[in-house]
Design goal:
The strands form 2 sheets. Strands 1, 4, 5, 6, 7, 8, 9, 10, 11 and 12 form a 10-stranded antiparallel sheet that branches. The chain has helices spanning 2-122, 259-262, and strands at residues 141-143, 146-153, 158-162, 165-168, 174-176, 181-189, 193-199, 204-213, 222-223, 228-232, 245-252, 255-257. It has 2 domains: 1-125; 141-262, Distorted Sandwich (Glucose Permease (Domain IIA)), CATH 2.70.70. The protein has 264 residues and is an alpha+beta fold. It is rod-shaped, with a radius of gyration of 68 Å.
Length: 264
Amino acid sequence: MKRGRREKIERNSNIKFLVYLSGGIALIMLLTFIITFVVYNNKIKNTDYSTLTTEKIAELVPNETNIELEEASTDIGKTIEEVINTAEKQTESAKEKTTEQTEKEMKVEETDKTKEKTVQTNVEPVKIKDPEFAMPVEGEIMRNYAKDSLIYSDTLEEWIVHLGIDIKANRTTVVKASEAGTISAIKNDPRYGLTIVIEHVNGYKTIYSNLLTSEFVSEGETVEKGQAIGTVGNSAAFEIVDEAHLHFEIIKDDVNVDPNIYLK
């Protein structure tokens, strides 16, 4: 009796174990199915989403890129054109400014030149005082200046013009410079003998002829008024029979003038 009951209990236990086992396996299979379904469904969704996203991206990105590229290209084109136009405008503006500046500089330069000319015109040139000639030797005038009239020459025994004055003086009398100047020539004149020429300011010259010596000066030398330049002699062929004297002339701008007017 006890044995039968024990077997019954064991049989029931085995049945329960099988039920539990079957339930557990079924539960595990259900869970496995559910998990598999969920995972697979998510995978499909993810795949669709990825596909959709990829397609959308493939559709949208190129369009957006194209739009951006077109806009960028347009903007670049506009920018380049604006830069070129701006550069041209700047170049034209610079040219205009340069032209205006050049014109202003030319006007200023012309104004400066005009002012300079005005100043130069208004500034009076420095006037150099005419020489004041002194007697080169002390003595009597024995023959006067005669350019527009004739005088008789004892040496030539004829009537001639006389372009200077003859100042009577003893032989070897020292002859002095009538005014300061430069010795421009020392020569033997065929008519008036040993001659010294002195150049002065304002186109004046003095000539000292019929000299005996000229060793006191040399050509190119600057002399002062009253400085000894030679001695009286009788070397003038045209006046050889006359008494010892100095033949003296004054020239203004290469024209002989009357020494009596200038001697003081």
